[in-house]
Write a structure and sequence with these properties.
The complex is a heterodimer of chains A (384) and B (208). Chain A is built from 15 helices and 5 strands. By secondary structure, chain A is α+β, with helices and mostly antiparallel strands. Chain B has 208 residues and is an alpha+beta fold. The radius of gyration of chain B is 17 Å and the shape is globular. The chains are: A alpha+beta (384), B alpha+beta (208). Chains A and B meet through α2 and α3 of A and α2, α3 and α7 of B.
Chain lengths: 384, 208
């Protein structure tokens, strides 16, 4: 029997993630149906069935694996209470698998994906990018039809790769887009297969700042809202992960989005904004709360105090009364101060809600005036 | 592989058509075609239990004969034997292709080109399977073939062909001679059309 206690290289990952990463390594070597089904089974907490399907497909197809992969499969079989001896039947070959697949980005592999995933990408946390490519070569011993569209999804640390793979695949199938979805999280090396696919892939959806820096996505505990989805936060609903969408479009969506969705870029300001420019921030790193509200610390301090002392006055300020933009005679408040209490944060959330309401009102007003953006904005969210 | 063991497992998988999800059934049949008996022995009994598919006594004997010699868990195998009657076929079949199939049915043409006059193959027919009312929902092609030998391999081969042509979960029923047809196959044959005939004459699925 295969020794399963050798300390494989994926120690530290949970069992579902270990199997997900194994499937990433097997992409292009087993058939796309097996990959997709195994990922759905992982997402549905049927790890045993997923690993049995994977191992069985490798055995029946006489598809070689490395001894490390064999140990990893044996380990997952054992940890999921399947029969680990199944791994003994695997064909082991230490020769590094050579990627023989051919990919092409021609003929618009990304067509329709951004639209099909609209809702999915609003809901699922920390999705960084979605690319697509055609694969012109068969995969595994029982390949499907060609060309095969391969959708490559990059996640940040808050995303759950198996869950995203399943949800994205489901949304694409619902839209009639047949594909195999490869989801990579941080800390996992890309195989040759994925590198070759990425090199030819076309972007279907990319977050605004994903191309410049990844550190900007990282969760910031100070500003991370602790309230569950039950307390709707319009700032999270602003859909600013779709960095190129207009605020008018996003605020029209009535469905709340879970507050854990990271905000990666500030919503674009309304074109004829009656407010004075707000680009007076310091160079320090922004908190999520700041990014969503797009306020200076002085404004936040003024509103915070007003809300604390007199909620009615605070709401007036948040509603954009002229007094809001008067010179503030309050000391600047450092929002990064870890001493902010839960009450402070609750007040800030209330403030954000008011501001979002104001933005909606402004957007509605603009639409009435014929100043709203055209539908071209929606098309524009597919990165060039 | 012992031909009796292979034959038992093939017949069992044939009888599971319309009961085990297509997604699993075609995969198990592929594994059988490739001779992966140890894999089947460790996975098929568990799948039957998880999907709450009870076997009648004939099917149970086939499971025991086919998979116990390859290491199937006896407790799992024992638990698959049901007491109540097996649910009858819940599908309806039609012989005519649904509207979405082009006037030139390339799958049918390819099957004809592959199997016409082929040794050990008898009649090749196809039917369209519907869930519930015909015309609502999607129709699925079911191939019905008689063959004298190499049934699991022929099944696997045709499944691979159908998958390349776009049928992700192909339904290929390769039927041995003197096989007591389950309700599913009887219903499919009753509403089927002839695709071609192999080299074995007289091995007819449907009376002329």
């Amino acid at each position: 029997m295969v020794e399963v206690h050798d300390g494989p290289p994926m120690d530290g990952f949970s069992v579902p993630l270990r199997l997900h990463n194994l499937l990433l390594a097997l992409a292009g070597r087993i058939d796309d149906s097996a990959l997709t089904e195994a990922r759905e089974l992982i997402a549905r907490a049927h790890i045993d069935e997923a690993v049995e399907l994977t191992t069985g497909t490798l055995i029946a197809g006489q598809i070689p694996v490395s001894s490390t992969e064999q140990r990893e499969l044996a380990l997952v079989l054992e940890m999921s209470r399947s029969d680990a001896t199944l791994a003994n039947d695997l064909l082991v070959d230490e020769t590094e698998p050579v990627n023989t697949h051919r990919f092409t980005g021609e003929n618009s592999p990304e067509f329709g994906i951004a639209e099909a995933l609209d809702r999915t990408l609003q809901v699922l946390p920390d999705v960084r990018s979605v690319h697509a490519v055609w694969r012109n070569t068969p995969a595994g011993s029982v390949p499907g039809a060609l060309p095969q569209r391969v959708v490559l999804v990059e996640l940040g640390p808050e995303g759950n790769p198996p869950a995203v793979a399943f949800r994205v695949d489901t949304a694409l199938r619902r839209a009639g887009i047949h594909s195999v979805v490869e989801v990579s999280g941080p800390g996992v090396a890309h195989s040759e297969y994925h590198q070759a696919a990425s090199a030819a892939a076309s972007p279907a959806w990319v977050t605004g700042s994903a191309t410049s820096t990844t550190s900007a996505y990282r969760p910031e505990p100070v500003a991370k809202p602790s309230a569950p989805a039950a307390s709707p936060e319009p700032v999270a609903e602003s859909g600013s992960r779709h960095s190129m969408r207009s605020s008018a479009t996003t605020t029209a969506s009535p469905e709340p989005v879970a507050p854990v969705v990271p905000i990666v870029s500030p919503p674009p300001p309304p074109p004829p904004a009656p407010e004075p420019p707000r680009k007076v921030r310091s160079e320090r790193a922004e908190t999520r709360a700041e990014r969503t509200a797009d306020l200076t610390p002085a404004e936040v301090a003024q509103l915070r105090q007003a809300l604390a002392e007199d909620p009615e006055k605070g709401r007036e300020i948040a509603a954009g009364k002229p007094s809001m933009h008067e010179v503030v005679e309050l000391p600047a408040l450092d929002l990064d101060d870890p001493s902010l209490s839960e009450r402070d944060r609750a007040l800030l959330r209330e403030l954000h809600a008011e501001l979002a309401e104001r933005e909606r009102a402004e957007a509605a007003k603009m639409r009435l005036n014929g100043a709203s953006r055209s539908g071209g904005d929606q098309r524009g969210w597919t990165a060039p | 592989m012992d031909p009796d063991i292979e034959q038992s497992t093939h017949e069992l998988l044939l009888r599971l058509a319309g009961r085990l999800p297509d997604q699993l059934l075609w995969r198990f049949r592929d594994w059988l075609g490739e001779g992966a008996m140890g894999t089947l022995a460790r996975t098929l009994p568990r799948s039957l239990l998880k999907h709450r598919i009870d076997l009648d006594q004939t099917e149970y004997r086939l499971l025991v004969a086919g998979l116990i010699p390859h290491g199937a868990d006896w407790h799992q195998v024992s638990s698959t034997l049901g007491v109540d009657d097996v649910t009858e076929n819940r599908y309806t079949f039609t012989s005519s292709a649904p509207e979405w199939v082009n006037s030139v049915d390339s799958v049918s043409v390819l099957i004809h080109a592959t199997l016409r006059g082929r040794p050990d193959v008898g009649e090749v027919r196809q039917s369209w399977r519907h869930v519930g009312v015909v015309g609502q929902g999607t129709a699925k092609r079911v191939l019905l073939i008689t063959a004298l030998s190499g049934l699991p391999r022929l099944t696997g081969e045709l499944q691979r062909v159908l998958r390349v042509l776009g049928d992700e979960e192909p339904s290929v029923e390769v039927i041995p001679p003197r096989f007591d047809l389950p309700g599913y196959h009887r219903a499919a044959l009753a509403d089927s059309e002839l695709v071609c005939v192999g080299a074995v004459a007289g091995n007819r699925l449907v009376a002329a």
